[in-house]
Design goal:
globular; four-stranded antiparallel sheet; mainly beta; 123 residues
């Protein structure tokens, strides 16, 4: 069982930056993928970015060139660096883990989830 604890959210003004963290514990396969999702009130959970165990990354068009997903394998921490934040980036952000080693944009394929961390961007 993989356990995820995400943190780092907060309130910032448009144009600001935040870095989210997700601490991973428990057994993980050598080949896997992790992702960040977000959910705004009244909307479905939306895929933001993925990183695969071989280092491949992929981003949603809405965050490309502004967000960076990375991981510290030694510390088992997943990060999401968010720059040039916009009000439309507001939402609850969740890290997720899947033992399928590929970019997966559908939430239902993920086996473990963090509890979520709130990001609020104001004008």
């Amino acid at each position: 069982q993989v356990h995820l604890v995400d943190s780092g959210g907060g309130s910032v003004q448009a144009g600001g930056s935040l870095r989210l963290s997700c601490v991973v514990s428990g057994y993980t396969y050598n080949n896997y993928a992790m992702a960040w999702f977000r959910q705004a009130p009244g909307r479905e959970r939306e895929w933001v970015a993925s990183i695969v165990s071989d280092g491949r990354t992929q981003y949603a068009d809405s965050v490309k060139a502004r967000f960076t997903i990375s991981q510290d394998n030694a510390k088992k921490i997943l990060y999401l660096q968010m720059n040039s934040l916009k009000p439309e980036d507001t939402g609850m952000y969740y890290c997720a883990y899947t033992s399928f080693p590929s970019v997966v944009m559908q939430a239902r394929y993920y086996e473990s989830w963090g509890q979520g961390t709130q990001v609020t961007v104001s004008l």
